[in-house]
Design a protein that fits this description.
By secondary structure, the protein is of the alpha+beta class. About 40% of the residues lie in helices and about 20% in strands. Strand 1 (about 40-50) and strand 2 (about 55-70) form a beta hairpin. The longest helix is centred in the last third of the chain and has 19 residues, at about 640-660. Mean pLDDT is about 90; it is low at about 1-30 and about 885-899.
């Protein structure tokens, strides 16, 4: 491992020219990056492991074929929490001197005489740990049918935890092939990336299983699992597609299997390169993680059960859609990430941004009724808010070491990355974009790339070149703000000017002063003809539009930018709001709320626009607006004027709620169920007596006969009751958690215990998180749940009990946990406590999450300064059209019983 101490200012990611430095294509040459020496290259690993679950340990033997590319006296590789019993090298009789560096997670084997260039075999006998968190080699305990405790083994290596399973070159560019052998219980199923090649009975209730060699791949994609599993499968072409679950869960995996079988031919066609492995398994594990839900191990995708299994008794429409999307995301990685892998973590977005875009594109192809592009908009808004604040980073961002790599798994990498890809596809056209992707897959299969490799392939087939646009949006942080100015209309045409600045929620707009090449689609309302142009630089860009209706920016919402209108232009759009397409209605609401939150437009502009949304508008828009109201309500916490805001929110939301009611109706759209749940949860939060009363009545019926409450009703009822719980009700929910028959139910109930609005009950939930009663991987989930409405309480609790909580967390992500808990706070003193905690517990190289949390807290405080404007508007605004007495409206809903 080496550290090159050169000026970071020259990094490719901040290069203001568009000629990238050489080290953008050669990761080992990057300044200040900690990587292993390139003098020794792995070619093949032959690994044999023997787990000892009872003692949470395992024995391993690795036989590694290496290529010494230049003379060296030592071999350095990655190893974490491993101890070495014996190390030998072919052609050498002496044992090397072993030096372990725990901080850098390396082992160095020094030899008495230099090694000449050539092929060698490095043999290592070693021992390692089996963890109880999802990192490295870990075990998950669960209650089997009948109450017996069973154990299941899994691995999780991204970003850099393969080194906890075997000594290896644990960097994405150090691709090699792997042959894995494991000793497991005779009755257990073993699974890895490739099919089983050979099984040998060892007696004494054990067997040795050897898997076929893998293709050339990065170490973080290796996988091993073993347990009392069963597998359902189907053949697609020449690929055996399976879902592996705990015994007894096979039926719950059928939906995921159907989804995977549907997606595989679609991906084969889209990428133009057929899936190259003989099998593809989707593997479900009990428990949860604080930071991820699934992992794209090549041929053996790992999922927590929440994101793979559907239980007819309590899974909702949201659950079904989530499973489809997560399956699509991880399967997309089998090409983008596994077949072609980023050279270093700087380009992580090549994996995650692309998969985030493809998950929507692929599932939308099969389920257009779900309107996933519209559903994706709230996630893009979250990315924009992060990108508009201090603590943001470019999509392609300099990564020094593995701790920094862990911090890069965020909304910028995923959601902004996906949004930029969608924008570029819309600009060049679907066929041209796919043509470039197919070239990229063909030319770089089994290899590593940097971002510019993708742009080169797309530019090679597209008449519209994207490199300048792509560089602006991937090499620079920030959100463009496109403003439309004074339209003049004559002879059926209008002329207007567009200008560009940077949107920011703090002083981050003063950093850099960059501008972007922004593709902007513009159309006048009432016209069927629009135009697309590139707005670049800060000078005004003139444009002529057909029609004299109000000009709408970012038509279709495929662009990654904020739109700003003059008061006159906005008034014109608001007057015709009901005529605007749903995607653009949501875009107008999102941009107006964002601008109002920083004082660039009055809050009244956002609230008056929200009041114009028809009760029967697209359900997803009402879902998003409802969540915005809930977010604003959090800023009212502890204020005397909170009740007035709650009354306003109830009046606004009663209109769509009166249409959808409590119970599903025949033929209703799939997304109505999600809207119903969101509306009822919000009304419960806003202390609506009728909704809370009806939820309590249904909860009583559920306790008596659970089957009398549908899956959709169960979640809605439990959510309202848990948030409004008193102590006896909380105790009932706690009893349900202890008695839950499945791991999914157990997870639901323990999460709900943390949602209580009562701070004393929230504290009880926090105290419970430290008890042995709660499965280890679910304990952090309780803190996360409490943090939604009690961020200071949750963060302070974690800080005070860090010595107990620290071992619960995954190794490479611990630095993010407390900042994430605190990020919902609107108390500036929380920043002081975070900084004090960071001084003792967060390495200086891994403080991106801290910076983001501090920026978010300051933003929350800033929103609080606009609440008086909201109060003033509420006091003077007319009652929304169609609003009626809320309690009577709720009592008249289908399925509501009244009191």
């Amino acid at each position: 491992m080496k550290t090159q101490q050169l000026a970071v200012a020259a990094l490719c990611v901040v290069a203001l020219t568009r000629t990238l430095p050489a080290y953008c294509a050669d990761p080992s040459a990057a300044p200040d990056r900690i990587v292993l020496p390139s003098s020794v290259v792995p070619e093949h690993y032959d690994v044999d492991v023997a787990p000892d679950v009872a003692h949470r340990s395992f024995r391993g033997r690795a036989r590694i074929e290496v290529d010494v590319t230049r003379q060296t006296q030592s071999i350095e590789l990655n190893a974490a929490d491993l101890s070495f019993d014996r190390v030998t090298l072919s052609g050498r009789t002496e044992a090397p001197k072993i030096t372990l560096d725990a901080a850098q997670q390396t082992a160095t084997f020094a030899f008495g005489a230099p090694l000449a260039p050539g092929r060698y075999v490095l043999s290592i006998d070693y021992r390692g740990k089996i963890y109880q968190q999802a990192s490295g080699f870990f075990v998950l305990d669960y209650a089997a049918k009948g109450g017996a405790t069973k154990h299941a083994l899994f691995t999780q290596f991204e970003n850099s935890d393969a080194r906890r399973f075997l000594p290896c070159w644990d960097e994405p560019a150090r691709k090699a092939t792997f042959t894995l052998t494991a000793i497991v219980a005779a009755q257990d199923m073993a699974v890895s990336n490739m099919p089983i090649a050979k099984t040998q009975s060892l007696g004494a209730g054990q067997k040795r299983v050897q898997f076929a060699p893998t293709p050339k791949m990065s170490s973080y994609l290796l996988f091993f699992g073993a347990g009392d599993f069963e597998r359902v499968h189907r053949t697609v072409g020449n690929v055996d597609v399976g879902v592996i679950v705990k015994r007894g869960d096979a039926q719950r995996g059928r939906f995921a299997l159907d989804t995977a079988v549907q997606l595989l031919p679609y991906y084969n066609d889209y990428f133009g390169t057929p899936y190259p492995l003989p099998k593809l398994d989707l593997i479900a594990a009990p428990g949860s993680s604080q930071f991820f839900s699934a992992m794209e191990n090549w041929g053996a995708i790992f999922y927590f059960e929440r994101d793979l299994l559907i239980d007819a008794r309590f899974s909702t429409e949201d659950d079904r859609q989530n499973v489809a999307v997560v399956v699509a995301h991880e399967m997309a990685h089998q090409w983008f990430g596994d077949l072609v892998t980023m050279a270093w973590w700087d380009d992580l977005w090549l994996n995650e941004g692309f998969a985030s875009w493809m998950e929507v594109k692929a599932v939308d192809h099969f389920h257009p009724q779900w309107k996933l592009w519209l559903q994706e908009q709230p996630s893009v808004q979250q990315a924009m808010n992060m990108d508009a604040a201090n603590g943001t980073h470019p999509i392609v961002t300099p990564i020094k070491d593995v701790l920094q790599a862990s911090e890069a798994f965020d909304s910028i990498t995923y959601q902004k990355g996906g949004a930029v890809i969608r924008m570029l596809e819309a600009y060049v056209g679907e066929d041209e974009f796919r043509g470039g992707v197919r070239r990229y897959m063909h030319d770089h299969a089994y290899a590593n790339t940097v971002t510019d490799d993708l742009w080169s392939e797309i530019d090679a087939v597209s008449p519209k070149k994207i490199r300048d646009i792509a560089h602006d949006f991937t090499l620079h942080a920030g959100v463009p703000l496109i403003a439309a100015h004074a339209a003049q209309c004559g002879q059926g045409q209008q002329r207007l000017k567009l200008t560009q600045t940077r949107f920011a929620i703090d002083d981050s707009s003063q950093i850099g002063g960059q501008v972007w090449h922004v593709p902007v689609a513009v159309r006048a309302l009432g016209s069927t003809v629009g135009t697309q142009l590139i707005v670049s630089g800060s000078a005004a860009a003139p444009i002529t539009l057909a029609g004299c209706g109000p000009a709408l920016l970012n038509v279709g919402q495929t662009g990654y930018f904020r739109s700003h209108y003059t008061p006159e232009a906005f008034a014109g759009l608001a007057a015709h709001f009901s005529e605007v397409a749903p995607a653009d209605q949501l875009g107008l609401l999102n941009d107006t709320e964002a601008l109002a939150s920083v004082g660039q437009v009055p809050m009244a502009q956002f609230l008056s626009l929200a009041a114009k949304l028809p009760p029967g508008a697209e359900p997803l828009i009402w879902t998003d607006l409802t969540q915005s109201l809930v977010s604003l309500d959090r800023r009212y916490a502890g204020r005397a004027d909170r009740a007035a805001f709650g009354a306003y929110a109830r009046t606004l939301l009663q209109r769509p709620l009166a249409l959808v009611g409590w119970d599903a109706r025949p033929g209703e759209a799939d997304n109505v169920e999600s809207l119903r749940a969101t509306l009822l949860a919000a009304m419960g939060r806003f202390s609506d007596a009728a909704v809370v009363g009806e939820a309590k009545r249904r909860f009583k019926a559920f306790i008596a006969v659970p089957s009398h409450v549908s899956a959709a009703q169960r979640n809605m009822v439990l959510g309202v009751v848990a948030e409004n719980a008193d102590s006896p009700t909380w105790d009932k929910l706690h009893a349900l958690a202890r008695a839950a028959a499945t791991e999914l139910e157990k997870q639901d109930y323990y999460r709900l215990l943390g949602t209580a609005a009562d701070p004393q009950l929230a504290q009880r939930a926090l105290d419970l998180s430290l008890q042995q009663e709660v499965p280890v991987t679910l304990r952090p989930l309780i803190l996360d749940s409490v943090a939604h409405d009690h961020p200071e309480l949750a963060a302070n609790f974690a800080i005070a009990h860090w010595d107990v909580i620290d071992p619960m967390l995954e190794s490479d992500s611990k630095s993010q946990y407390v900042p994430l808990l605190a990020s919902g706070s609107g108390d500036l003193s929380m920043i002081t406590r975070l900084n004090a905690f960071a001084a003792g517990h967060i390495p200086s190289s891994a403080r991106s999450s801290l910076d983001k949390a501090v920026a978010r807290i300051r933003y929350n405080v800033q929103i609080g300064t606009h609440l008086a404007d909201i109060d003033k508007w509420i006091a003077t605004a007319p009652r929304p059209q169609g609003a009626e007495d809320l309690p009577s409206a709720i009592r008249s809903m289908p399925g509501a019983s009244g009191r």
